């Protein structure tokens, strides 16, 4: 988490270093699917969301104190930070409630329409123009995601229109969070402070919903507790800080396209660690997503002066 004090160096495209970091991050987030599934055996999902935010936030605060990173100086980010935190918290609420109302596959696909909303919002608000190349690349990557979950998209398993709309809303809120960050002074603040705004929003929304959820603790056992700590300390306090550090420097549309990898890596990690079924579709999906990412993030050809 040692990126906050670096001089801000904005890039106009995702380079190889950022791409490698994003692959590592999305693999970690895919592994987080496994950790979440294990932790659900011991804790209610809403309680988990609050616990992840609080424990992760405390880790970030300790890190900032140790490194001397200023968090409470007046930098003009408070209003934007509250807005971004509220969007982040509502996104998780929509995601959780939507998942209760529809299938996992439909939820995954609808939430992961996020890069398309970032592309549209970025065109109008961030001066990141929609190009045919970017659109084709995103469609190709999304096709890879569809390839993984296509056999699970039937609405016969209790899926409802409300669940689908909430899942789609989560994807839109996810995109809006990124756009608010890129559009406001949040893009100039430290990644640690930026993350703390998000975690505060998630914890507050979770606290409001908790009375309507199930019992917070289902089974206080070692494995679910370790899975919770993995999510809080590594996923929240480390990978999210790194992600926001990247988001401040690189185009939102280019970075967001990599998130298509997370659910695919989740399926792959589920097969490795939970002995869940794995089909050839996962490798087809990775190929399509990789091709899409290359197209989206390939440097534009420079015009040769005539």
Question: How would you characterize the overall build of this protein?
Answer:
This protein has 306 residues and is mainly alpha-helical. The chain has a domain at 44-133 and 157-259. The protein has helices spanning 16-39, 45-67, 78-101, 104-111, 114-125, 132-149, 161-183, 191-209, 222-249, 252-256, 261-274, 281-297. Helix 3 runs antiparallel to helix 7. The protein is globular and about 45 Å long. The termini are far apart. 49% of the residues are buried.
Q: Cα-atom Rg, whole angstroms? A: 19 Å
Distance between the termini: 47 Å
Biggest β-sheet strands, sense, barrel: none
Number of continuous helical runs: 12
Extract low-pLDDT stretches.
none
Pattern of helices and strands: HHHHHHHHHHHH
Q: Tell me the fraction of residues in β-strands, as a range.
A: under 5%
Question: What would the average pLDDT be, to the nearest integer?
Answer: 84
Report the count of strand segments.
0
What class do helices, strands and sheet pairing give? Answer: mainly alpha
Assembly status = single chain
Write a concise keyword list for the protein shown above:
EmrE-like, mainly alpha, 12 helices, 306 residues, membrane
Itemize the secondary structure elements and their pairings.
Elements lengths: L15 H24 L5 H23 L10 H24 L2 H8 L2 H12 L6 H18 L11 H23 L7 H19 L12 H28 L2 H5 L4 H14 L6 H17 L9
Helix pairs in contact: 1-9, 1-11, 2-8, 2-9, 3-7, 3-8, 4-7, 5-7, 6-12, 8-9, 11-12
Membrane topology: Multi-pass membrane protein
Subcellular location: Cell membrane
Protein name: EamA-like transporter family protein
